[in-house]
Amino acid sequence: MAARSLWAVRRRLQRLLASSTWSAGRGWLHPFSTATQRTAGEDCSSEDPPDELGPSLAERALRLKAVKLEKEVQDLTLRYQRAVADCENIRRRTQRCVEDAKIFGIQSFCKDLVEVADILEKTTECISEEAEAGDQKLTLEKVFRGLSLLEAKLKSVFAKHGLEKMAPIGDKYDPHEHELICHVPADIGVQPGTVALVRQDGYKLHGRTIRLAQVEVAVESQKRL
User: Fold this and answer.
1) 68-101: string of b/e by CB count within 10 Å (b at 16+)?
2) What pLDDT, in 10s, does the model give residues 53-79?
3) What is the mean pLDDT of residues 174-188?
């Protein structure tokens, strides 16, 4: 059995040798021959680009990308510098506006007060002239008219600018609006704990208390302090 297998293998080898010899005689190359491998190697080497071109192309692409990125960085840096400069200019203008508002915020109020000062000045001049003439009754009448005009003008100026005088008599005592001076006995018809007398007027500006009213608060007789 082993001899038969060995004979079959030898027979196949003889056939392969014979076929390769016949192909060489006709000018054909065996696929696994040395010549065929050399020719294939030469063809591959002639078609593929040399290895030196790969790194140079990659390096060129990286350089172009680096130049592009550098331009973008320069552009962004320039934009950032302009934005910082604009913000600084806006900050300075805003600060200047705030300072002007602090200084000239009461400009309109002062302009109206100047008219009150004019009335007071004219009244003073009239008083001095009449005092020299010796007519005291006429002088007092002019003083009264001047002061009445002055008071009316002041009330008009205050109302125009939202300045309001409080009228707390009869109101319940409020520490946010009233400054307690003392307690007084509650008279008939006066509720304890309410404002009985105003020592000094208080004022509000657009509803906000800017000066407390000095008041006396009514209390029951046994709670008088």
Assistant:
1) eeeeeeeeeeeeeeeeeeeeeeeeeeeeeeeeee
2) 456 888 888 889 999 999 999 999 999
3) 92
Tokens standing for residue 178: 């009233």
- Residues 6 or more apart in contact with residue 160 via CB below 8 angstroms: 112
- Give the largest CA-CA distance in the chain: 171
Note the helical H segments in the chain.
2-25, 34-47, 53-104, 107-133, 136-160
- How confident is the model over 188-195, as a mean pLDDT? 89
Q: Where are the alpha helices (DSSP H) in 161-188?
A: none
Q: In the numeric block, which tokens belong to residue 65?
A: 């990308």
User: What's the rounded Cα separation, in Å, for the pair 177 and 164?
Assistant: 13
Write the CATH number of the domain with boundaries 162-224.
2.30.22.10
Locus of tokens 């040798």? 17
Indicate the domain borders of the chain.
Answer: 58-161, 162-224
Position 55, amino acid: P
Encoding tokens for residue 50?
């040399």
What's the alpha-carbon Rg for the chain, to the nearest Å? 56
For residue 185, the cross-strand partners are: 219
- Secondary structure class of 123 (helix, strand, coil): helix
